[in-house]
Each structure stands twice: as C-alpha cells, then as structure tokens.
Amino acid sequence: MEKGKMNVHVNRIMVVLLPAIVLLMIMLGWGLGLFTHIEEEPDINEASDRIVIGVSQLGSESGWRTANTESVQRAFTKQNGYFMIFSNARQKQENQIKAIRNFISQRVDYIVLAPVVESGWETVLQEAKEAGIPVIVMDRSVSVEDESLYVTLVGTDSVEEGKKAGRWLEEHLKERRMADEDINIVVLKGTEGASAQIGRTVGFSMIAGEHDNWHILEQEYADFTIYKGKEVMAYFLEKYDDIDVVVSQNDDMTFGAIEAIRESGRTVGVGGDITIISFDAVYEALEMVAEGTINVDIECNPDQGEYISEVIRMLENGQEVEKRYYVEEDVYTMENVTQEVLDARIY
Ligand code: GYE
Questions:
Q1: Which of 133, 142, 288, 343 is least surrounded by CB atoms within 10 angstroms?
Q2: Distance, CA 95 to ligand 1 centroid (Å)?
Q3: Which residues are within 8 A (CB) of 232 and not within 5 positions of it... i.e. 6 or more apart?
Q4: Residues 46, 82 contacting (CB under 8 angstroms)
Q5: Strands laid side by side in the 296-299 sheet
Q6: Which of 62, 66, 157 has most ligand 1 atoms within 8 Å of CB, for mutation?
Q7: pLDDT (tens digit per residue) in 219-278
Q8: Residue 149 and residue 179 in contact, taking contact as beta carbons nearer than 8 Å
Q9: How far apart are the CA of 265 and the centre of ligand 1, in A?
Q10: Are 252 and 225 in contact (CB under 8 A)?
Q11: CA distances, 310 to each of 69, 80, 95, 316 (Å)
Q12: Which H or E element spans position 51?
C-alpha cells in the first residue's frame, strides 16, 4: 500500500476506535474508583424507620484505626436497623467539626465521635446538645468542663495502659536481676493532643517516676504512623548509642522503629539489644510477639461498635447509661500469645 493511502486508512480506524477507547478508559477508571474522590453521601430519605447515626472517625493512620472503623461498619448495618453516615476526618479536628455540623443539619438521631485531640470541642458539642442530638464519644476522650455535652464514652483506659507497660518493665527487669541497673528509655509518642497519647505517657511516667535508675532520655511525637515511627527512631539512634528500651505507643510506630533499629545494626526483642514495648496488639504485632521480636504488647481493643450499639439500645429504651465504658484489654508476651489467640484475632 502507498504511504499516503495507509495514513488515511489508519486515520479512519482511529476515528472509529478513539471514542471507544476513551469510553472504555472512563468506564475502567470508574470501576477502579478513580473518579470517586468525594465521599458518597447516602440518601437519608431511605432511612425512615432506621436509627440514623453520624460517625465522625478521626482518620485512618493505623491498623488499629482500620479495625475500629470496620467494627463500626459491622455494628451499624441496615440489617441491625441502622442508617450510618460515615465521615473520615483525615487527622484534622476542623474536618470533624464540619462533619458534626453536617450531621446536626441532617438531624441524625445519634452522633458518634472518635476525637483526634482532647480539647476544643465545647462549641460544636454545645450545638449538638441544643439540637437535642446525643453524642457518644468513641475510643479517645474529650476534655470538656461540662460533661453533659456528651452522653457517654465507649473507649479505652489509656492511663491504665501506660501503667501496665511500666509494671511489665518492672517485672521484666526483676526477673533478669537488672532491677537496680541503669535503664535508658526512649518514648515514641502518638499524636500530639490525643488522649490515647496523653494517657499512655502519663501512665508510664507514673511508674517510671518510682525508679531512680530508669532514665527517659527523650520522648517525641511520631503520630501513630509507621513512617514517623521509623523517622523518629532513626533520630533517637543517631543521638543515643545506649538505648535499652523503646516504649512505642502503638504497633504501627513499633513496626517503623524496628526497621530503623535493624538498619542501624542492632537487634530487638527477646534476647536482643533493645527491649520493645508496644501498644494495640493487632494481629501482625501479636505474631511478632510470638516470635520474640516485640517483648510485650499492651492490648487496646478497637472492637467498639457492638458496645456502642448496646449503649444506643439502652438509650432507645430510656435506660440510664454510665459516663464511661472501657473495653476489656490484656497484656501479651511470648508466654500467652498462643495459636488459639492468633486464630481468634479479627484485627
Ligand atoms: O492506639 C493507635 C491509633 O486512639 C487508642 O489510635 C487509639 C490509638 C491506637 O491510631 O494505633
């Protein structure tokens, strides 16, 4: 075929094929969710006989958080009589405040709030109260003078978790006959201003304060993420060459910290150079406890959806509820992470 004719031929084929290709790409993109950046708002009119609940989740920073979101999604289903509007605040309090105002204007029946930080909630909670919408605080706590601004809290006792970490270290050192030796500790703290971070810091410091030979070299925020955990740990390792213990306030930071320690040529866990104390006890971390990479993991239970739905059932029946409900939590070491525990773990 002559060159000119071939070009005309190819052009014709393209004229026919191009729109089809574009259409196919759009459909593919749609299927993959590439064009659905905006969170879909379910149609509230569908909810006539269901309990409408607005959930403001603080973000998706950790494995624990994903499990917490899944727990809520399992509890507030259509089959269970709920209509849930879910909003992810991506670590920003201002997004949570916007979400709550949005829930108020949609006149939801209940608001569930997992607050990123402890303070700064008065105004918006007052607005919810005036609108007559009960607020249930989930996971982390809010610090407000007027406690009537929320109905109840379903969450974890983070001060107690911090104390458990301290008590475990006491025992551990005693068992190794190291109770009187100098112990150098660094602390990877979670998000600044978050109650889970504040409580764990306070709890651990209370026990540490009873031991003159425990030296907290430095405590630094690492946002509860793997990436930050690794970065801050690398900074600690650069600065101090005699770290004995890392207290990492969640498993994600622990994963990052372990990477940094190994890259620095040091070893972790049972029989290693650096003792690792972690919090959360998600599946992946429990496996690391079982193999001795993490010495101890203070459990924090994210499965709070069921508890909240029980509280809502009580409120619907006009029953009194308590101001605080703490979920049950354990302490895991190599000794008690059995295959049975791992198999039963849903997060
Ligand atoms: O430990 C951490 C998460 O608030 C208890 O937040 C929760 C903490 C949890 O991102 O992994």
A1: 343
A2: 18
A3: 188, 220, 221, 222, 253, 257
A4: no
A5: 214-221, 183-189, 245-248, 275-280, 296-299, 331-332
A6: 62
A7: 999 999 999 999 999 999 999 999 999 999 999 999 999 999 999 999 999 999 999 999
A8: no
A9: 29
A10: yes
A11: 17, 11, 27, 10
A12: strand 51-57
The encoded tokens of residue 85 equal 């509007």
Q: For residue 77, give its domain range.
A: 47-155+303-316
Three-state DSSP at 274 gives: strand
Look at ligand 1, atom 5, and give the residue with the nearest C-alpha.
Answer: 196
Question: What tokens does 126 get?
Answer: 């007052």
Give the pLDDT mean for 179-183: 97
Element (H, E) at 139: strand 135-139
b or e along 213-251 (b: 16 or more beta carbons within 10 Å of the residue's beta carbon)? ebebeebebbbbbbebbbbbbbebbeeeeebbbbbbbbb
Is residue 71 located within the same domain as residue 82? yes
Minimum-distance ligand 1 atom for the alpha carbon of 158 = 5
> Does 110 lie in the same domain as 98?
yes
Nearest CA to ligand 1 atom 10: 62
Say yes or no: 224 and 109 in one domain. Answer: no
Distance CA 182, CA 215 (A): 7
Same domain, yes or no: 145 and 182: no
pLDDT digits (tens, 9 = 90+) for 69-110: 999 999 999 999 999 999 999 999 999 999 999 999 999 999
- Asked whether residue 224 falls in the same domain as residue 269, the answer is yes
What is the C-alpha R_g of the chain? Answer: 25
192 Cα–ligand 1 center, Å: 12
Two tokens, residue 182: 């100098």
Q: Which atom, in ligand 1's list, is nearest to the CA of 64?
A: 11
Ligand 1 residue neighbourhood (C-beta within 6 Å): 61-62, 64-65, 139-140, 156, 196, 224, 250, 252, 279-280, 300
176 Cβ contact partners less than 8 Å away, ≥ 6 residues apart: none
